[in-house]
């Protein structure tokens, strides 16, 4: 046997295992960990996507909620998983945690690999119907006239309600008083009654309030107008493109996961969200921009988001605790 052929044959066993493992994947049910409570938008979207993925893979995709510490309990568990069949379904909060928590048992930037951005959802800037301003310019003018007067809702440091509002405050050079709530539901009630001045809420819960005449929508945070209420301008059109924001959902895998496996997951997600029934249901939940981008694009997307939020939170005086 020629020496070159002999060396190639000897090398083959070292090349086959990784390729064979990737080709055989998945050979057991896939666990999709959601690090937030059941029933929330991220959880509902994850369950729909998991069902769609199950139709495009030889094994079922099962959702498991592992909550706590702003999503870090579930994310850390996935980062340490070694079974090759455990993935993370998280959202914008994943890009914020490194800037919020001084001590983590995993590194969000290196221990979890972004697979694909599933979707983006707009936030809606709501104010009471009794408010004297009818657009973002009026709101900004009111805040500048009395920086201590206006209030906005948060659901905790680093929550999306705070993040999207901080972008507007930063872009417009204004201040407002933050009021913590257990959730956006109670905050919405205070906007309706006029006890709260500003609520930046998720589209699937904010649009019905505006459409029903219970509150006034001044802008959507996304780069494009919403198909739900196309008459509402984007925050960029209102003069503050730097305040553009979308809540996103993303799948992650533990570092060391073969590229072929990452690609297969991305393809399964892409096939799932192309199904008209699932796409329609996701849109109803506020996921207006369905993406399922390739792995390299998802990695760049998440990296840019981490850099963005670290800067915003630092400038807002929020330090890791």
Gyration radius, rounded: 22 Å
Q: What would you call the structural class?
A: alpha/beta
Trace the largest sheet across and list its strands: 2-1-3-10-4-11
CATH architecture of the largest domain: 3-Layer(aba) Sandwich
Keywords: Signal
Protein name: Tripartite tricarboxylate transporter substrate binding protein
Family: Belongs to the UPF0065 (bug) family.
InterPro entries: BUG, Bug_dom1
Secondary-structure topology with pairs:
Elements: H1 3-24, E1 30-34, H2 41-54, E2 61-65, H3 72-79, E3 86-91, H4 97-100, E4 112-121, E5 123-127, H5 136-145, E6 151-154, H6 160-172, E7 177-180, H7 184-193, E8 199-202, H8 203-211, E9 216-220, E10 247-254, H9 259-273, H10 276-284, E11 289-290, H11 295-315
Parallel strand pairs: 1-2, 1-3, 6-7
Antiparallel strand pairs: 3-10, 4-10, 4-11, 5-8, 5-9
Helix pairs in contact: 2-9
Verbal overview:
α2 crosses α9. This protein is globular. It has a six-stranded mixed sheet with strand order 2-1-3-10-4-11, sandwiched between helices. The model is unreliable at 1-16 (pLDDT under 50). The longest helix is centred in the first third of the chain and has 22 residues, at 3-24. It has eleven helices and eleven strands. With 321 residues, it is an alpha/beta fold. It has two domains: 24-120 and 247-315, 3-Layer(aba) Sandwich (D-Maltodextrin-Binding Protein, domain 2), CATH 3.40.190; 123-243, D-Maltodextrin-Binding Protein, domain 2 (3-Layer(aba) Sandwich), CATH 3.40.190.10. The protein is 42% helix and 18% strand. The chain has helices at residues 3-24, 41-54, 72-79, 97-100, 136-145, 160-172, 184-193, 203-211, 259-273, 276-284, 295-315, and strands at residues 30-34, 61-65, 86-91, 112-121, 123-127, 151-154, 177-180, 199-202, 216-220, 247-254, 289-290. α2 (41-54) links the parallel β1 (30-34) and β2. Residues 1-24 form the signal peptide. It comes from Rhodovarius crocodyli. Keywords: Signal. Belongs to the UPF0065 (bug) family. Pfam families: TctC (PF03401).
């Amino acid at each position: 046997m020629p020496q070159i052929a002999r060396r190639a044959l000897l090398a083959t066993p070292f090349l086959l295992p990784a390729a064979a493992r990737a080709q055989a994947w998945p050979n057991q049910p896939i666990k999709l960990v959601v690090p937030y409570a059941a029933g929330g938008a991220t959880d509902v979207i994850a369950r729909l996507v998991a069902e769609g993925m199950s139709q495009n893979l030889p094994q079922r995709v099962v959702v498991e909620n592992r909550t706590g510490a702003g999503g870090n309990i579930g994310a850390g568990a996935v980062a340490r998983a070694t079974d090759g069949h455990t993935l993370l379904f998280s959202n914008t909060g994943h890009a914020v945690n490194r800037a919020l928590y001084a001590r983590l048992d995993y590194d969000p930037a290196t221990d979890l690999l972004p697979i694909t951005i599933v979707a983006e959802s707009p936030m809606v800037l709501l104010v009471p119907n009794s408010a004297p301003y009818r657009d973002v310019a009026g709101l900004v003018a009111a805040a500048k006239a009395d920086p201590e007067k206006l209030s906005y809702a948060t659901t905790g440091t680093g929550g999306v309600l705070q993040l999207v509002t901080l972008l507007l405050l930063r872009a417009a050079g204004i201040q407002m008083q933050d009021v913590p709530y257990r959730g956006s539901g109670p905050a919405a009630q205070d906007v309706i009654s006029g006890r709260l001045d500003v609520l930046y809420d998720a589209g699937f819960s904010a649009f019905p309030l505006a459409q029903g005449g219970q509150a006034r929508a001044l802008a959507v945070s996304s780069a494009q107008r919403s198909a739900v209420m196309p008459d509402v301008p984007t925050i960029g059109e209102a003069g503050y493109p730097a305040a553009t924001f979308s809540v996103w959902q993303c799948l992650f895998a533990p570092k060391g996961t073969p590229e072929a496996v990452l690609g297969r997951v991305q393809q399964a997600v892409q096939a799932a969200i192309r199904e008209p029934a699932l796409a329609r249901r996701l849109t109803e939940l506020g996921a207006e921009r369905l993406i399922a981008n390739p792995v390299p694009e998802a990695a760049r997307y998440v990296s840019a988001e981490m850099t963005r939020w670290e800067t915003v939170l630092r400038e807002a005086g929020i330090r890791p605790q």
